[in-house]
Amino acid sequence: xxxxxxxxxxxxxxxxxxxxxxxxxxxxxxxxxxxxxxxxxxxxxxxxxxxxxxxxxxxxxxxxxxxxxxxxxxxxxxxxxxxxxxxxxxxxxxxxxxxxxxxxxxxxxxxxxxxxxxxxxxxxxxxxxxxxxxxxxxxxxxxxxxxxxxxxxxxxxxxxxxxxxxxxxxxxxxxxxxxxxxxxxxxxxxxxxxxxxxxxxxxxxxxxxxxxxxxxxxxxxxxxxxxxxxxxxxxxx
Length: 237
What we know:
By secondary structure, this protein is an alpha/beta fold. The protein has seven helices and 14 strands. The protein has helices spanning 16-29, 41-46, 81-85, 104-108, 162-165, 170-174, 225-236; strands spanning 5-10, 36-39, 54-57, 60-63, 68-69, 89-93, 97-99, 116-118, 129-130, 134-135, 147-151, 184-186, 193-194, 206-208. It has a six-stranded mixed beta sheet. The longest helix is centred in the N-terminal third of the chain and has 14 residues, at 16-29.
């Protein structure tokens, strides 16, 4: 019997247009329906699932446990996806993405021996800011967590409890601290193409505007900007 499948997109009200593009492009390419839901911080807090303390510093969202800025509201809440999905394979993607292929192909590439599958980038940005002035931080396995295919039924993911998500520094979560190295599978780089950083010879299935979407100043003419704007127009039509 095929395992249940679900797709989860990070939501931040400051990037509602990015979320619209990501969700619309996913659904437009799906041949077989797969539920697509948002990871919405206010819902997780209201439901009592997400209790990490946050504050505001210099107008930025601040994670008090990490003592570091959070570029989006789903910076840490993304790791609640296995708990939200409960079973099967659950795909999480950041909001600043444009999907160009049927994501069923990504699910079909899943290795049931792995707890999670990611594109294993060696991303070491030199810039100090990104997007709308957010801090550009460097940490091990950066951008691995921007596309995560979770095997929710894998025993190792039982350690990814709400208590863990709500208590450890964000950098530990993004480094997959609850997993052994051999429990992290590798996806083809086309499933998380980093605009301005990945090999331009790649024909991306998922385009990731990791530095900033085409709606943000300074990124209007980046790779795949026209496709992103066309998708936004399709969504609005």
